[in-house]
Design goal:
disordered C terminus, 15 helices, mainly alpha, 2 domains
């Protein structure tokens, strides 16, 4: 038993020493990559918190007077947390990157020195998920950060838990030492894997949310375009009319169009980010009819709206009340086509 504990302790010492060696071998490029990943994570979190605050503000509109004030206090906001994250981002932007992402630096060194880590199948599948979640511009940096974190956390996690398990076993602490000795490395590896699996779960939830929001979005677009509004303005009006994943992606497309990015590129990016058949059909219809009049695109939008509400009726989780509302909306749209 002592021989086994000594062998495991040597392995744990090697892993921890390797992690420290990689940390000291990190260069400026590694520190910049870690800092950019931290900056991107903070920015994503800020956007999420602002969206949550926007939902709270929308919910507060049903109250007035003293009740409004009371509910506003009870609901609170994330202003302080957002301000803290923004200050952190300002420091990173100003070049204060010495301590940014220190725990992941060994992983960045591994990724830089071993090509199969930064260009393998796992990397490519993760990058595709990040393109959907964060767009092409940020996908590579986000993927590099996750791969680095997986490598670094697995290395130090297994090393530390093995060493702790051996120490507690040597002190004869009973089951505690054995549990840490056996389960610690497994949990460390599972935590590293969860970083890889998390984007898949996020992307799935996001696509489901976009699918739920789509009928309302396409119905509003159809209404505005059929009333004579040009497509670009109708898109802007619809994107500003509510909050949610789909509305956020529409705002991004509006921003790209306002920056004189070609409509083909802007709507193609929208298709990639949303990654649902409904949004793909919508963007493709808009692209194919950019040079045509409002009447033709209006008819297409109304048809898409009708189809979307029909599908909404059969979506899992659609309650009886939801089904009744959907049926009523479908009937109204059908009468206008």
């Amino acid at each position: 038993m002592k021989f086994i504990l000594m062998a495991v302790l040597l392995l744990a010492s090697f892993l921890v020493a390797l992690w420290l060696l990689l940390l000291f071998k990190s260069n400026e490029d590694d520190r910049v990559s870690a800092a950019y990943d931290k900056l991107l994570c903070n920015t994503i979190k800020i956007d999420k918190l602002r969206q949550q605050d926007a939902l709270k503000v929308a919910a507060l509109r049903q109250y007035a007077g003293i009740m409004y004030t009371v509910m506003k206090i009870l609901n609170g906001s994330h202003e302080k947390e957002i301000a803290k994250l923004e200050r952190m981002n300002e420091a990173l932007t100003d070049g204060n990157i010495a301590k940014a992402g220190m725990m992941t630096l060994p992983g960045h060194v591994l990724r830089r020195n071993f090509r199969f880590i930064g260009h393998g199948r796992l990397y490519k599948s993760l990058q595709l998920r990040h393109i959907e979640l964060y767009g092409r511009k940020n996908a590579e940096f986000k993927t590099n950060g996750v791969i680095a974190a997986m490598c670094s956390y697995a290395l130090i996690g297994v090393g530390v838990t093995l060493a702790l398990g051996v120490l507690l076993s040597a002190l004869k602490t009973g089951m505690i030492g054995n549990v840490i000795f056996l389960m610690g490395p497994v949990l460390s590896l599972l935590m590293a894997y969860s970083l890889y699996d998390e984007p898949r779960a996020k992307a799935t939830r996001r696509r489901e949310s976009i699918a739920r929001q789509f009928p309302n979005v396409v119905s509003k677009l159809a209404l505005l375009v059929c009333s004579g509004m040009i497509m670009d303005r109708a898109w802007n009006e619809t994107s500003d009319s509510n909050v949610g994943e789909l509305y956020t992606e529409m705002k991004k497309t509006s921003d790209e169009l306002n920056q004189n990015i070609a409509p083909e590129a802007a709507y193609s990016n929208f298709i990639v980010r949303c990654n649902t058949k409904e949004t793909s059909k919508l963007a493709s219809a808009i692209l194919q009819n950019l040079s045509k009049g409002n009447s033709e695109i209006g008819n297409l939008l109304r048809e898409l709206s009708y189809e979307a509400w029909q599908e909404r009726r059969h979506m899992p989780g659609c309650s009886t009340r939801c089904s009744e509302m959907t049926a009523a909306t479908t009937q109204k749209i059908s009468s206008r086509i």
